[in-house]
Amino acid sequence: MGLDITAYRKLVVVENPELDEDGEVLDWDNQWKLGESMEWSEENFPGRGEGVNPQTVYTWEEGIEFCAGSYRGYNWWRAKLEEFSDGNDFQELINFADNEGVIGPIVSKKLAKDFAKNKVKAEDFAKSLDNGDWWIGQYELWQDAFEMAADNGAVEFH
Known about the structure:
alpha+beta, five-stranded antiparallel beta sheet
């Protein structure tokens, strides 16, 4: 088991979505309801989901999915991100859940800027790591995800 990530660009509210008896969307391929995962992350990490509503059903213009690694692998990657950061950058990701939740477009814009401005430094840092190629590959995936979500989207941890 591990942490999977889905990033969405240009979320659009679905008016009158078809829901099942539990209130879940029927068209999983084209619609997304943030629901309990976001409610939990907002309770534990307030403000990370700013810009999206957990009870709203959305569709999107573009999306990507990737595996952030096993839970152990992701937490190693995140610990190295913290080690290399200046203490201000990436904090909304470093101090976030490793299993579920949603980061909305407002925080995604800040994180996209952090990833972009630290890219060269990250490439140099990766050279000092035993698993540096994997680490920088994950860095690039996260950068892509937050750049996408910064465009009126969101990043879902699941």
